[in-house]
Task: inverse folding
């Protein structure tokens, strides 16, 4: 655990290029221990690119520090085992594994079997739908259930910081409620730090204490949830209520 | 009976494809390495003094083929696997080089392996004679397949192999050590090939061209069973195994491969994803 004065995750002047396209143009954000940090912005703004860079899946310029460690020096695997866990937009579940096997995979690198058992109970508790479908193959489940499973699998890796990419994309409102409650509970009861990337600004504003607005590869605005709610541009362009 | 041995070969081939996306054309050469390792340490004539018991020979064959497979991955394939075409050609070149080396070292004429378990059993009811080596090959192959099945479905490490074949990104997200898992897959595939090599070498032939038939067979079985599917490999191995036996019985040994190819063409036309080809669908 880091002490409270240094940020949990510190991204400084991050640049990512896809060939000649400059996808991220000097993004800097700090995520503090125990908070929910929201990154909002339209499709194609670079939210997923940023998360992919943090997870070690992309080459980048600039620096990313997690608990003081420069992530450029560690492998994607070490990033996961050190507690920075990524739940992607595509979910990347194991389609022919059952719910239970997918969850087991999330904990495959952990040795403390008792803690794993406990986390398994916690996840089934958090998402009773998964509990009902333990033996169902991931592929045959609905989008909402798959999203729950993806979050559940990430939780099985015992994260300190969870990166969620578009957890509400394409889901029915009633399912979004479930995801909603789960995120609230994880943050407040388990003290989990969450970096949330969302197009659904309303959803992000509901949870995040601080946010950043990412547009075409750079941060256009950063501040507290209250500041975002009062900002005219945000209200008009992203929330749509006046 | 030989079908179980075919299954061993096809499983190794399909696992490597499933996990790494590599079509390993040197897979047949690993079988050859297994057979010749057995020959060298058991025959007594090849290395003069070495004439170990056949049981130890079998273990040596497995170990040498597994090691060769591991070295092939770490030393070569790992560095080029991003490019499937180069990998494809490189493994073919390795197979050809090994074949040449074996011609130089052992001459091109076929050799006879010492039978692991000489003799045969006569089954009265069916009026057929089954050699002991076939029975042992069957049993040992199934034990190996059973162990593998237990490993990939009941342990975290083994499950990671299956998981990686379903979604490489998913495996990365769950902290799977991809290089380690891939290397281990090659090790297992090599061990299976070495084991199969001793039985193929005894039952069919041990020669520097013996790598070709099993490789073609592995291809056919894997395509029929569904690329990347272990279950499919087993079922298809039996299908092809019985078909071969039947063809040889009814039409003669010259037609051994013909019907397998016919089935291959039919499968490709009717169900290109194979019998259990679901993993492939999601690549």
Result:
């Amino acid at each position: 655990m880091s002490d409270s004065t240094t940020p949990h995750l510190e991204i400084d002047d991050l640049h990512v290029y896809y060939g000649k396209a400059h996808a991220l143009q000097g993004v800097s954000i700090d995520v503090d221990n125990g908070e929910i940090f929201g990154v909002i912005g339209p499709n194609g703004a670079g939210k997923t690119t940023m998360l992919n860079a943090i997870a070690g899946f992309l080459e980048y310029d600039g620096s990313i520090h997690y608990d003081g460690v420069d992530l450029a020096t560690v492998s994607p695997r070490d990033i996961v085992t050190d507690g920075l866990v990524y739940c992607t937009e595509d979910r990347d579940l194991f389609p022919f594994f059952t719910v239970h096997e997918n969850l087991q995979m999330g904990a495959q690198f952990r040795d403390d079997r008792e803690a794993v058992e406990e986390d398994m109970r916690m996840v089934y508790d958090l998402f009773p739908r998964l509990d009902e479908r333990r033996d169902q193959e991931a592929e045959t489940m609905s989008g909402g259930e798959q999203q729950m499973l993806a979050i559940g699998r990430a939780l099985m890796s015992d994260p300190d910081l969870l990166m969620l990419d578009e957890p509400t994309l394409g889901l029915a409102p009633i399912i979004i409620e479930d995801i909603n409650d789960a995120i609230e509970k994880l943050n407040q009861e388990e003290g989990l730090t969450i970096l949330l990337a969302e197009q659904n600004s309303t959803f992000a504003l509901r949870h995040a204490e601080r946010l950043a607005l990412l547009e075409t590869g750079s941060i256009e605005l950063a501040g507290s949830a209250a500041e975002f709610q009062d900002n005219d541009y945000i209200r008009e362009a992203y929330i749509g209520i006046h | 009976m030989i079908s179980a041995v075919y299954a061993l070969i096809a499983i190794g081939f399909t696992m490597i494809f499933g996990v790494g996306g590599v079509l390993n054309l040197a897979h047949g050469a690993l079988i050859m390495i297994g057979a010749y390792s057995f020959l060298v340490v058991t025959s007594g004539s090849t290395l003069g003094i070495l004439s170990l018991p056949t049981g130890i020979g079998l273990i040596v064959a497995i170990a040498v083929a597994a090691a060769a497979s591991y070295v092939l991955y770490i030393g070569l394939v790992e560095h080029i696997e991003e490019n499937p075409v180069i990998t494809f050609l490189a493994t073919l070149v390795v197979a050809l080089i090994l074949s040449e080396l074996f011609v130089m070292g052992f001459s091109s004429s076929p050799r006879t392996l010492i039978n692991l378990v000489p003799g045969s059993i006569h089954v009265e009811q069916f009026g057929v004679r089954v050699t002991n080596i076939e029975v042992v090959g069957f049993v040992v192959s199934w034990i190996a397949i059973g162990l593998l099945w237990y490993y990939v479905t009941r342990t975290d490490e083994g499950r990671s192999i299956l998981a990686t074949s379903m979604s490489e990104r998913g495996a990365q997200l769950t902290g799977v050590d991809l290089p380690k898992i891939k290397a281990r897959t090659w090790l297992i595939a090599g061990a299976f090939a070495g084991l199969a090599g001793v039985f193929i070498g005894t039952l069919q032939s041990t020669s520097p061209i013996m790598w070709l038939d099993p490789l073609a067979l592995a291809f056919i079985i894997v395509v029929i069973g569904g690329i990347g599917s272990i279950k499919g490999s087993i079922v298809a191995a039996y299908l092809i195994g019985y078909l071969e036996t039947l063809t040889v019985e009814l039409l003669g040994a010259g037609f051994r491969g013909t019907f397998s190819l016919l089935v291959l063409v039919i499968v490709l036309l009717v169900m290109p994803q194979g019998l259990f080809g679901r993993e492939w669908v999601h690549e």
Remarks:
- Residues 279-283 of chain B have pLDDT under 50 and may be disordered.
